[in-house]
Amino acid sequence: MAHLIGEKDNMLSIGVKPWHGLGIVLDDYVETKEAQKLAGLGWCVTKEPIFNRGGQEIPEYYGVTRSDTGDTLGIVKGQYEPYQNDEMFEFMDNVMQAAGTKIETCGSLRNGRTVWALAKAGTKEYLSGDPVEEFFLFKNGFDGFTNIELCFTDVRVVCNNTLTMALKGASNLWKIRHTQNHKDRMQEVSLALAAQAKNSAALKDAMIHLLNKAMTDAQIHDYFVNLATPPANRGKGLELKTIQKNVIETMDGIYFGEALGMSLPGVRGTAYGALQTATAFADHFRTVRAGSRDKIEARFESNFMGSSAEFKADAFNLLMAA
Questions:
Q1: How far apart are CA 60 and CA 239, in angstroms?
Q2: Hey, how many other C-beta atoms are within 10 angstroms of the C-beta on 16?
Q3: Rounded Cα–Cα distance for residues 211 and 205 (Å)
Q4: CA dist 296 to 52, 159, 284, 310, Å?
Q5: What is the tens place of the pLDDT at every residue in 196-221?
């Protein structure tokens, strides 16, 4: 297995290879069902009984079994109800028809234990010459631990930074457990997605506000110090730990150095520039614990849905509250 790409995994991408130079690359978009087929995600899973060494069935526990290979992807209890690949792509198709977009990349990892589909929702510019692309991500898993996860995110093209903050209580991230009522919850998400355009418009207003908010070099540095300090310790004058000093030094280096995207007119000297520095740090420099996952996969998940996304949301909220 290379980079968690198992011999029973595949993936599809438009224009560029999606994972370590691996996968099927197409020059143009295809329909959802064709994308699912080319990415090797035409299979489903079933819950199969588990037996001990003596041949006795273990009650209330099942193996999540991949239909095309017979591989057991995870062990679950009886209330677990898988959300199938067909359901994921049907959901994506409905979202994309409403948005007028198509799948950018999709595939599986760890021989099918993790599956995903990513669709581009559009391109906008908060600052002239600084394009930001909007994406919708759907990730699912069959290992017994991974939830159904969906999120909207913006990606700043010039330096590949992801902005994953929500505004005024509106969520851009949903996590749904694999239970019998997950279809009802997915319907709730469908309704929430309809409100995303309003959230996107509010985010644009917020970004323009940050672009127009001037900050001195000293204020920028103080902001980095505040951001590197755990929320419970802010304003208490406690001595910074070495790890916090390293975070501040790295963000100072990004902002005051020659980092990609910082030299664009209107970025440096603004709260927008401070936010882009924080997102660049979170996406590319912040330490992410990989555990049993590949480091690239761990950072991908953290940037979109995990601790790095939370760090960026905190960075955004600090600037908006100031």
A1: 52
A2: 10
A3: 10
A4: 37, 17, 11, 18
A5: 666 777 788 889 999 999 999 999 99
Cβ atoms 165, 313 nearer than 8 A: yes
Q: How far apart are CA 136 and CA 305, in angstroms?
A: 12
Hey, what amino acid is at 233?
Answer: N
Mind listing the pLDDT tens digit for each residue in 59-82?
A: 999 999 999 999 999 999 988 999
Listed in order, strand segments (DSSP E) in 22-166 are 24-26, 45-51, 57-66, 72-77, 103-109, 114-127, 130-141, 148-156, 161-163
Closest by CA to 314, choosing from 208, 232, 221, 204, is 232
pTM: 0.76
**Residue ranges per domain, the chain?**
11-42+84-195, 213-321
Q: Helices 182-194 and 196-211, interaxial angle, to 10°?
A: 50
Alpha carbon distance 11, 22 (integer Å): 8
Which positions ≥6 away from 59 have C-beta within 8 Å?
Answer: none
Residue type, 6: G
Cβ atoms within 10 Å of 27's Cβ, excluding its own = 6
Residues listed for the chain:
322
Amino acid (one-letter) located at 118: L
Q: Is 131 left (phi over 0), alpha (psi -120 to 50) or beta?
A: beta
The CB-side HSE value for 118 (13 A sphere, CA atoms) comes to 19
Distance separating the N- and C-terminal Cα atoms of the chain:
48
Count CB-CB contacts under 10 A for residue 108: 26
Enter the tokens of residue 26. Answer: 């197409």
Strand partners, 117: 106, 138
